[in-house]
Design goal:
This protein is mainly alpha-helical. The protein is built from three helices and no strands. The relative contact order is 0.04.
């Protein structure tokens, strides 16, 4: 755990140094860039919902499970329909 804390603090210091010594960039972004970011965020939310659909649906629907496998006590009963 101590190594992880040390690594994270070192990573944060390195990120701070990189931010202090950054150069000014003369770049152009068109107005559609913001819409592309919104579309990417929306797509990520829909994909997460698609992946987690069973967990979400289990919140609203109650599943009934039936145990159809015979137990040891059922094998010797009279009237058992299995051939053996």
């Amino acid at each position: 755990m101590g190594k992880l804390v040390h690594f994270i603090s070192l990573l944060m210091m390195l990120t701070g140094v990189l931010l202090v010594f950054q150069r000014q960039a003369f770049a152009y972004t068109d107005p559609g860039t913001g819409l592309l970011a919104i579309q990417a965020a929306g797509s990520a939310l829909v994909a997460a919902g698609w992946v987690l659909r069973r967990k979400v649906s289990s919140l609203f629907h109650r599943r009934t499970t039936e145990n159809t496998a015979p137990t040891e006590g059922d094998a010797g009963r009279e009237g058992d329909s299995t051939v053996g």
